Give the backbone structure.
Amino acid sequence: MSTELYLLAVLVALLIGLAVGKAWERYKLRAGRWIDRRRLRETPHYMLGLNFLVDNQVDQAIEELTQATSVDADAIEIQMILGNLYRQKGQVGRAINIHQALLQRPDLTTFEQAYVLLCLGLDFRHSGFVDRALEAFQEVLRLDARNRYALVNLQKLYEEQHQWGEALRVREQVAKIDAGRRPDDQQILGFLRNEIGVEQERAGQHPAAARSFAEAIDLDGRTVPAYLNLGDAREREGDLGGAVQVWERLIDTVPEQAHFALERLERAYRQSGAPHRFVQLCRRLIDADAQGWRARLALARHLTAAGQHRAAFDQLLEALPHHPHALAIHQQIWEALAGLGFDAGLFRGYVELTRDAVFYLDPHICRRCRYRSTEPLWQCPQCHEWNTFVEERLAPAKDAAAVKTTAMEP
């Protein structure tokens, strides 16, 4: 009998616990009264607002969420979303007013206060109030020292102000929070350390700059500008052999970015009396990447400078189908054709190969925000992310192999 009563008591306690849990999930005490969270979520305006938000229809989302606040004017989450939407729409002043009004509420939890401050910091950053944005993000971190979003935005602010040392310090905190889960941490640390080296170089602190470039490479072996800058530093010191080693290491580590070092290596090989090493390097890169056009272009320029116009022309016709809208290839072809006296057969083959080519003035595009540039950039000026630019290419419009064969005929 006692066992049955014990089991019954356990069952009753379990049911009471479930009831209390459900009530806690559904209701929230605010300003001395209980708020029904489910009632807010079940309003059609709330759901429609979320749907419009997912579809990126900002105006409709603002309209529906504003009507949803009539159900519960104290709903903090809706007010924060509305403020963020106004900021996205460009009405930053209105967003600031909404978020500042939320901060005046005496019943905010620490988490809610930190999140509203984060939104306010984003408002200030968007409107260009750097000092106030810094203050807001630092206040978030006072409430929550491991708030990754505040740290990342603080880092971006320091980057925009070219305070590379502060940006590096903050990113190191982010990396500690991530604990190796995000590979881009080391990449960003490498680029920030490289920027510190650039600033030191400008200030005449050459030994310190060289150390910073080397540290950037140690942080992330794919920090391409650090290799270039370290090699340049060694060349200025008179250590041409050391510079060549650094640039060659870049090519071995990041072969798809080898073209950044090719001009430097061509000059260095020529100064050291071994220009044939550049030809060998270009042919090795061509063999490793059949679609790579930049190594062929560099080799063609080298051959043109040596008076080997036909060999240069052949390399350029090989490169052209892989990147038909690269103006640099066409300019080099014209120079090669001029050296060949504008041979009619070669010129006709070139025209056939390029008849349907499309030319871009800005073929480099950011993977994150789709910003376009005429040249590859290490940091996007629009979204401020590091190492996101790729080269947008078009496939050849017709059978390049057949046309090329025609062009090669005497």
